[in-house]
Amino acid sequence: MQGTFYLGANTPGGFFSYYGELDRAAPARKYIIKGGPGTGKSSLMRKLAEAAEKSGESVEYIVCSSDPASLDAVILQSRGVCLVDGTAPHTVDPIYPGAYDEIINLGGFWDKEKLRGARAEIERLSAAIGDSFKSAYRFLAAAKGAHDDMRALLGDRTDAERMTRLAARIARAEFKKKDGARGKIHRRFISGITPVGVNHYLDEDLASFSRVYAVMDPFKAGGPLLSALAEAAAGAGYDVVCCHCPMAPAAFPEHVIIEELSLSFVSENAFHAFSGEAVRRINLERYVSEDARRQNRQKIKFDLSLYRSLIGRAVEYIKEAKTLHDELEEIYTGAMDFKKVNSLRRASVSEILE
């Protein structure tokens, strides 16, 4: 899938990773970059992506949930190759060293004495960054509690069966069964809770799609609909990208993308919406009991307001962590021999694209 996604997310349970998806997306070769912050990992990936796109190749960009301006991985789909930042929190280590995985070590180009001399500051900043993320995750957990309370108020008053029937009707209209094997389901995040807020790539990634269903889902009740659509598409033989919500990363998909059909189903709520032209808009409020909504209107309003506020506070802590991380990067950047890094970068890009 060409576009921009996250494979890791800041969630109520801490950092959540779908980095295992890389081995499915890049079955031929995986290059793992090791090195400290500010040592040139993201720049290396961006140079590779730029060179690949210049030659006409399709590139999938995986951005960092702690800094969307930074890359965590790039995937060259036609080659089955990826380049990934293998450092924490999404530590990636070789599975089959040499046979499949290759390590690119940028740690060989830093001044060890400079870094040893800055150890106390590195430890201080690293600890402060960790504390900021712990606070962020506590607020995300509290936000989840507010959302869970809202869902409890609605209880079993959401008509999942009607949503499943709607999914079946849409599937009959949109998914002509192909000959051959079942399609694959890939996992991604297309939105992230980041230092710049709840950041998403719906508009960019789906700009060229001919058919986008916009699903208005203020209560996040659309899991049964989207899951059924994903299963129906895969069952008909199409590869599917299921994009999950960072607030419930292992639960139902929040968006479903079928690139081969130029078709997608996008959930809309207070944090993200598709600004392009939709072929159909589905309001899932009508599948949630009107009586339950009316009887609990004030409680639901309070929970939604609290939910947004708590996520906003979590964002402030993630922003604080980003500021501290920038200071940490400056230490490492000042200890790097970038002439050698650039030489390795050119050689690596040449080797991967040869």
Instruction: Please tell me what the overall shape is.
Output: flat
Total count of helical runs of at least 4 residues? 10
Give the number of DSSP strands.
16
Number of separate structural domains: 2
For the sheet with most strands, the description reads: 6 strands, mixed
Strand order of the largest sheet: 1-5-6-7-4-8
Radius of gyration: 22 Å
Low-confidence stretches: none
Tell me the series of helices and strands, N- to C-terminal: EEEHEHEEEEHHHEEEHEHEEEEHHH
Helical percent range? 40-55%
Fraction in beta strands: 15-25%
What does this 3D model show about the protein?
It contains 10 helices and 16 strands. The protein is an alpha/beta fold and 354 residues long. The protein has 2 domains: 3-110 and 337-353, no CATH class; 158-288, no CATH class. The strands form 4 sheets. A 6-stranded mixed sheet has the order 1-5-6-7-4-8. Strands 9-13-14-15-12-16 form a 6-stranded mixed sheet, covered by helices on one side. A two-stranded antiparallel ribbon has the order 2-3. Helix 2 (41-54) runs parallel beside helix 10 (338-353) and helix 5 packs parallel to helix 7.
Brief descriptors of the model:
354 residues; six-stranded mixed beta sheet; 2 domains; alpha/beta; 10 helices
Summed up, what is this model?
By secondary structure, the chain is α/β, with parallel strands linked by helices.
Helices and strands, with pairings:
Layout: E1 3-5, E2 8-11, E3 14-17, H1 22-25, E4 29-34, H2 41-54, E5 59-64, E6 67-76, E7 81-85, E8 101-105, H3 112-117, H4 119-154, H5 160-174, E9 185-188, E10 191-194, E11 197-200, H6 202-206, E12 211-216, H7 223-235, E13 240-245, E14 248-258, E15 263-268, E16 280-283, H8 290-295, H9 297-333, H10 338-353
Parallel strand pairs: 1-5, 4-7, 4-8, 9-13, 12-15, 12-16
Antiparallel strand pairs: 2-3, 5-6, 6-7, 10-11, 13-14, 14-15
